[in-house]
Structure formats: C-alpha cells, structure tokens
Amino acid sequence: MELAKILSKENYIVGLAARRVNLLKKLQQELPNLSFVKYIDISKLDEIEKNINELIIELEGIDLLIISSGIGHLNEELDWQKEKETIDVNVLGFTKTLNIAVKYFLKKGKGHIVGISSIGALRGDPVAPAYDASKAFISNYMEGIRSKIKKAKLQIYITDIKPGFVDTDMAKGEGLFWVMPPTIAARQIFSVIKKKRDKAYITKRWAIIAIFLKYMPDWMFYKL
Ligand SMILES: NC(=O)c1ccc[n+]([C@@H]2O[C@H](COP(=O)([O-])OP(=O)(O)OC[C@H]3O[C@@H](n4cnc5c(N)ncnc54)[C@H](OP(=O)(O)O)[C@@H]3O)[C@@H](O)[C@H]2O)c1
Q: Distance between CA 24 and CA 16 in Å, rounded?
C-alpha cells in the first residue's frame, strides 16, 4: 500500500492487483495519479496470464512489475492445507507471475521485475516451515533468472527485496523485533527500485541479521 502511494506520488501510473478489490479501490482513492485496479488471485494458475495481460492493456504497457503478493501461516501443527496454500501462492503463483513478466519484458527488450521474498529465505523456520522455504525458493529462482538475463546482456532487471519485520498483517508471532513502519520500508524499497539493485535487505540494518543467519553454525541455529 505504502509503496503504491510513493510510486503514484512519483508520477507512476499504478496498476493494483490482488483479491480484495474493495481494499484496492479504497487505496486507489488515496493515490494522486492515475491508477487501475484488477482482481487477480495468483493461486489460480490458469487465470493469471489472462488477468495480467488485461491489466497491462489497461495500463498501455508496463515498465515495472512488483510481485508483493504472499501469505504466511504460523503452522506449528503442520496443517497440510496451510502448507499447501503457502506453496500455491508464494511459490507457484509467484513463479508463474514472474514467468509471465519475464517473457513480456523479453519481448519488449527492457523492463524491471521486483519480487518480495524475505529475510526468512536465509534459514528454515520451525514455526512457519513452508513460508521460509517458499521465500528461499523465490529468492533462488530470481537469482537464476537474473543470471540468465545478465549473461544475455539485456536491459531487464530483477530485484529481490528481503524485508525483515514490517508492521503489516503479515508480521505474526512472538518475539518480533526491529518491526518497521510500512512507510519507512516502502521508502527504502523505492530507493532500491530506482537504483535497479539486484537485492536488498529492508530495512538496511537487517543486512546485519542476514550475516549472522548465513554464517551461524547449525548447532547454534537450532538453539535459537
Ligand atoms: N510484513 C513483514 O514482516 C514481511 C516480512 C518479510 C516479507 N514480507 C513479504 O512482503 C510481501 C507483502 O506483504 P505485507 O507485509 O505487505 O503483508 P500484507 O499486507 O498481508 O500483504 C500481502 C498481500 O498479498 C496479497 N495476496 C495474498 N494472497 C494472494 C493471492 N492468492 N493472489 C493475489 N494476491 C494475494 C494480499 O491481498 P489479497 O488478500 O487481497 O489478495 C495482500 O495485498 C509478502 O510477500 C510477504 O511475504 C513481509
């Protein structure tokens, strides 16, 4: 939401897509520049392409696609439905959306795709195993596509945003720390987008946690 507001203020024509169209329409009223709203459920794999293409037509083409859609369940009981839902949205829906966007930008010869993974991509999570695994998948997938595009020396950029905790509905559970207001996170994400960076931790200080997580020995990690 906050990122859409910044983009609109910066004169981007924004297309807003998700399932709760009523919330998107409410957000649309707060945007200073022209915007469009589209119902898209990225877990419905057969419908994504048609819906994205319709939105692209309304926007008369796009230069930037941000894939922020995601769900996260605390799932200590390992309920299969919750694990599956997470994989359907965060892995299959995300990957299909990215696939459609890459092909669109390859045809156009330039473009920018931003995917929101998570600091959670770095290690497994005992309470939300499917969530962290899904973010590891998309982070690695974006790296693969980025590498393919860089080898071909194309003007297409793939940015992986790895947020720590941001104060939205998604930030659930005990022991959260450094929880950032969405306004600050959105400002930093916009700055990363403008620089077309490959990857970034949001907010910046989460890069310190990332180093700990990456290099912490397993025995220590299991005690956390
Ligand atoms: N907040 C955090 O602490 C945090 C940390 C790391 C990473 N992230 C990631 O940041 C991204 C944005 O999350 P947020 O923090 O802004 O939380 P949020 O407010 O809950 O946003 C999640 C968005 O995903 C959309 N969505 C969920 N399922 C969808 C589906 N099947 N099809 C289309 N859209 C769907 C939701 O809209 P509808 O429900 O209306 O479809 C909602 O707009 C997520 O990918 C999340 O994993 C968040």
A: 7
Q: Is the CB of 115 under 6 A from ligand 1?
A: no
pLDDT tens digits along 134-172 = 999 999 999 999 999 999 999 999 999 999 999 998 887
What separation in Å is there between the alpha carbon of 219 and the centre of ligand 1?
Answer: 32
pTM: 0.97
Residue ranges of domains in the chain, CATH in brackets: 61-221 (3.40.50.720)
Q: Does the CB atom of residue 43 touch ligand 1 within 6 A?
A: yes
> How far apart are alpha carbons 53 and 67 in whole angstroms?
15
